[in-house]
Fold:
Amino acid sequence: MELDMIRGLSSSPRISVLKQRMLDEPRFLSIEQAAIVTEYYRANPDRPRNIQRAESFAETLRRIEIRIDPLELIVGNRTAGVRAGVVSPEAGISWIDEEIERLPVRPQDKFEVRPEDIETFRSDIRPFWKGKSLEDKVKALLGDEIGAIGKVAKINQTDHSQGHICPNTKDWLARGPLAIHDDFIARSKRASKEKRGFYLGVATALRGAMDYIERYAALAKRMSETEDSPTDRENLREIARICAKLVKEPPEIFREAVQSLWFLFVLLHTESNASSFSPGRADQYLYSYYRNDLDKGILDRVAALEIIEALWLKFNQIVYLRNSNSAKYFAGFPIGFNIAIGGVDDKGKDAANELSFLFLKAQAHIGLPQPNLSARLSEQSSEEFVRECARVIGLGSGMPQVFNDESIMPALMARGISSKDAWNYAIVGCVELTMHGNALGWSDAAMFNMVKALELTINNGKCLLTGKQMGLDLGSLADYRTYEELEEAFRTQMDYFIERMIKACDRVDRLHAEVLPSPFLSSVVDDCAGKGLDVTAGGAHYNLSGIQAIQPANLADCLAAIKQCIYIDHSVTAEEALAAIRSNYEGNERLRQFLINKVPKYGNDVDWVDEIAAKWVSYFAARMAEYTNARGGPYHAGLYTVSAHVPMGQNVGASLDGRKAKDPLADGGMSAMYGRDKNGPTALLRSVSKVHSCDGSNGTLLNMKFLPEFFRTEEGIAKFASFLRTFVKLRINHVQFNVIRKEDLLAAKSHPDEWRSLTVRVAGYTAYFTELANDLQDEIIARTSYGEI
Amino acid sequence: MDGAIIDIKRFTLHDGPGIRSTLFLKGCSLRCAWCQNPEGVDAAINLWYFGNQCIHCCQCESVCAYGALLLDEEHEPFVQINKSKCTRCGACMASCPTRALSFDGKTISAAAAAEALLRDVEFYRQSGGGITISGGDPLVQHDFAIEVLRLCKKEKVHTAVETCLYADYEVLERFIPVTDLFIVDLKLADDAMHREYTHRSNELIKSNYVRLAWKKVDLLTRIPLIPNITATESNIAALARFIREENPDGRVELMNFNPLAVNKYVLMNKSTEFFEGMKPLSASEIEELQKLLESEGLSVVKEHRRLRSEGR
Ligand code: SF4
Ligand code: SF4
Ligand code: SF4
Structure:
């Protein structure tokens, strides 16, 4: 490997210009696709849903405005403007109706809105979809139930398509859309009557895809005819050639393969308008194209890096429009183009190659929120690779985040994943684990707030914030005579909500199959073709559902306080504790401080406290394993919140870990409550390692913050690399790092204009710091940071 | 065997190679005017009051059975400790909801200390790190320190000792079999100044240094840079000559003054007069002094580190 050469590469002026242009372009709400789709449905009300989806998708691809910048090496976007907020009426738009005027001024994820679009939306689009969208159907069927259990079990995927899939890009590149199309046509001829429609729907969608790529070929050709600059003209001709080829044939050279990959993801986003279609192990499946070109002498590393960086910019041009509530949970419009580099190959050997290093280099240069770059580390990882990861982490863009093959592969196998698919795992979205090209993981089915469940357990099933009867009345803290009795009641309370949550999740899942079949997506997920089933109906080889257990740190801290103070040393009475949390510690700051300072906390390597977290996470994971989802696959548990710890915390009253009512919960998923881990990063990692990694097979998230000083010297980088290696040894699934000084964050907060491209790790993804809402900014500033100055 | 310790700190990065944990022992034979860990000097464990953390809940006064605590609404500090009455029973500290009332150390067994130090053993193995015993000065509680080192060595962990070398050589010698790296402080070459600023002569320190160097132990020499006192050209040059003569292959590291320590003096109600106007040296000033060392042929560790002062 030419590592020294790669390390010395710099970014090209072309890339800097493109990057600046992209960042300077305002973000708009876009209803173009919504208008086309609505027009289609109006004219074709009676076709089967999958055909409607395929035809309206194809229609969009034939009509949507497209644009090419003559400097671009890789082209294509789902709107002519960059970073547009695309409206998707089939999934749910009632919130847009309510919020459209406020989109430009809301606290999180602002979008400009054209006045004429508001008009069209209100007169044409919104009325047609009333009662027909996924959201409306969910509301009609489940609205009350979702509201009733929402503070404990938040049901997700109720108003948008699923996404969170790592398609089989390798196969897409190997065959190209035409061959896949022909395969589906051939299958349709052999298929039974009820399956024929599925195959034809997919073929229709692919036809649209090919027409779309063709349009880019034509546009590039037209532009080249009038382009004055010879280099740009040459570039446009090359784009025209590549696009024309990709309509019919699979790519052969590296640039073609990258262009083809990008078209695939634009198409997936156009069909589903969902978060998190992830390319997965692109360093693996693109490698042969890269290597061949190098060997033939038609590509050098400088040119390869430029192509990669062009793709990196593209990943930042698609964002995801969320309602303001969801934008609070997933701030900074993460779209989850997750790329997993390194890891092991099918023989268990280190799989990192030159592309892995070039991807790191591109990340170091571009430093934007997308792609979400993830490094898979294992015992086999080379020292060069680990150090290069450390170096890029030290630059502060929050990437790559780090995943651990040694713990994740066994965790997946424990869920019934074959070893062949487990070694080839990838990540979708933020930190969700997936198999490559053959799974619908439904990784964010719901979030289960264990801290709220505990609140109800110690307060007669009543919500501390509203006084409403929300859960089972099993007694109050004063009624449980022993800690074990309390635990028993807690278990009963959890079970009660788990049961209701799973029922709701199943019904939402079925509604997706009914309302939002995804024919194009089904063409690139294994087994859909063989089974003759849409991916939403269980066509994928693996069909999981993931539910997040939230938040082990607060739960452990609360239970530790209860156990120690009330049941062991009797330093606090149950009555006093109850009175304190009922009054939000009003007039009893002494007790609050006592609970904070005199009870050991999760994250400090105190075994008995950490084990409380491990115990309940295990309990939750075991309960999940008992259920089968609507697509016939297992439920499993995840341990991440993305940024939902803030709104989730708003649902919880004062808690016995000393947290005040409505304050955020611990961030991330595995992290300690901020400011409560006082024994440094090694102790935190050891605490986290006590939670069984198998219990977080849907994905786990640990945030750590280091100071930039740590990475200043080669010695520091080496120490950090060994820190990462110990993380691998400790069998923790995931960790990610924010490397930035507190002073810089404070400066960025007060002078956002000067810090526009500053990115920080929020929770499983990277966002522009200045685009985060105030409370999230404060929260990030408050996280504990390590490294001596 | 029990010892009095200040604290165990994990993930220390500047007390030897790799990722480490450091045990800070109480007690020191010197009394450096600039001591960065003043709570470490006294071998006894004392109760301290840190007003910045006190929430004025008044709990402590009623808990003390010996009448050793007095609350004073009018004057600072709010809680006054009568040291002669305090039996160090710890009752007030247990009931204090914050860390405002704290002992400056605790007594633990060598086995418990070793166990705590060894918790991060995976990190040491991956990074080539280990454990360090510092202080105060580890030579004061030498039996305890040696026992802890022995227990860690048994687990094949790299060990380091950070010391000012003020003890009989026989004591120091017993450390050699259980210590992989000696990090030793040399402060002032001039004995009169040494006496003035540390209350002790440097004769013993120098002779220990020489004998340790003869033994060919792994030796890292550190010089604290205290503006206008140790950080003068003449002092550094004199120390450099001494080191070159006795330990020509040795590495030397200059540790910059750390103003954070002053805060501790404030919290402990000690006079801060000594520190008035004192600032860390600039990078260029340090480089000048490093050049001085190099001109004597010494190999210099160039990290621009500051003296440690564990903040509260
Ligand atoms: S040798 Fe170190 S611990 Fe002892 S008094 Fe001097 S500075 Fe303080
Ligand atoms: S340690 Fe004991 S004797 Fe001393 S002040 Fe506290 S309670 Fe009183
Ligand atoms: S118990 Fe602690 S917080 Fe309360 S007055 Fe005494 S020192 Fe202050």
Notes: Residues B 47, 63-64, 66, 68-69, 81, 86-92 surround iron/sulfur cluster (ligand 2) (CB under 6 Å). The interface with chain B takes residues 589-594, 597-598, 605, 679-683, 686, 713, 715-716, 718-719, 722-723, 725-726, 729-730, 786-789 of chain A (CB under 8 Å). Residues 150-161+444-510+538-701 of chain A form one domain. The longest helix of chain A spans residues 193-226.
